[in-house]
Amino acid sequence: MTPYRQITVVSGKGGTGKTSVVASFAALGPEKILADTDVDAANLHLMLHPQINRREQFYGAKIAVRDESLCTRCGECERHCRFEAITVEAVNPFACEGCGFCTLVCPRTALHMEPALTGDLFISQTRYGPMAHAKLVPGAESSGRLVTMVRQAAEDLAMQNGTDLVLIDGPPGIGCTATAALADVDLALIVTEPTPSGIHDMRRVIGTAAHFGIPTALIVNKADLNLDRARQAESVAREMGAGIVGRLPYDETVTRAVAAATPLVEFDPDGPVSQSLRECWSRTLALIGMSV
Question: Residue 226's pLDDT is what?
Fold first, then answer.
């Protein structure tokens, strides 16, 4: 068992308010390490304004590279590439899937595979604690590996700083990046909206977390837009074994806080959503045996 606890905030799809919730939780106690593992569309940094202390290059999937001195332009690579990623003239790094088949069919061994630079990992400092985050090149592969790197960097920060808590902004959905963000955490906190698609996606996330034996809990965002659906979401979550952390009301102040790039609990500390967020954070910590 690690000396620190980990919470990953996830959602079945993008746009549910997950990152706004994480940003406000970041601004509330106790001290914590922050991690943004939504590497395909990272935006937590827009709210927390990190000062970058260290930057590491990330090399993802391998792509084909041609030795021009050996190539005779015979075209075998182009004829066999099912992804149309290579011609006798060039390799398209965005289309290359890294299968390496072209290297096998090249009669002159003029092709080989090399890791491609596909992103950056950052170790930063924010007003709310140290932060690990990343930026993936648009369309690049191996984002699951980059998520794992961000997780490892955050865990290293927790060990170095003697911090008891790592708060992770997870990717939406149930793909490889989401599962990489959920692995071995103490709680998956799901943010959903009171809609049929929101409930459907919430089911899938709870099922994914349950597959890995990870406890889950639910926050219903904009709950008062459809109270019947909000109650239905909570009922489904309970049936699937998830805890209920609370509801957040709809409030246009949230949009203004996002536009101001400020966590809501600081932008509108006495507003109804901020009050609900504090209650949700307190209950979330209680689920992992911690307190504010």
Answer: 97
- What pLDDT is recorded for position 189? 98
Rounded Cα gap, residues 265 and 240, in angstroms: 31
**Positions of E strands within 67-175:** 111-126, 129-136, 165-172
Residue 94's pLDDT is 82
Which pLDDT does position 123 carry in this prediction? 98
Residues in contact with 170: Cβ distance below 8 Å, sequence separation at least 6, in sequence order = 8, 9, 10, 11, 18, 37, 38, 178, 181, 182, 188
Task: With a cut of 90, say whether residue 143 has pLDDT above it.
Answer: no
Q: Which amino acid is at 219?
A: I
C-alpha pair distances (Å), 286 with each of 118, 217, 236: 39, 12, 22
DSSP symbol at 185: -
**Rounded to whole angstroms, what are the CA distances from 4 to 69, 98, 157, 185, 251?**
54, 37, 11, 10, 34
Beta bridge partners of 218: 190, 244
DSSP per position, 216-264 = EEEEETTGGG-HHHHHHHHHHHHHTT-EEEEE----THHHHHHHTT--H
Rounded to 5°, the CA angle 202-204-207 comes to 110
**Tokens coding 164:** 């008891």
CA distance between the termini of the chain: 22
Cβ 85 vs Cβ 113: under 8 Å: no
pTM over 0.85: yes
Q: What is the rounded CA–CA span in Å between residue 109 and residue 99?
A: 16
Strands lying side by side in the sheet with 165-172:
51-66, 111-126, 129-136, 33-36, 165-172, 5-11, 187-192, 216-220, 243-247
The answer to whether residue 141 scores a pLDDT higher than 80 is no
Residues 6+ positions from 29 with CB-CB distance below 8 Å? 292
**Mean predicted confidence (pLDDT) in 145-154:** 95
- Backbone torsion region of residue 56, taken as left when φ is above 0, otherwise alpha when ψ lies between -120 and 50, otherwise beta: beta
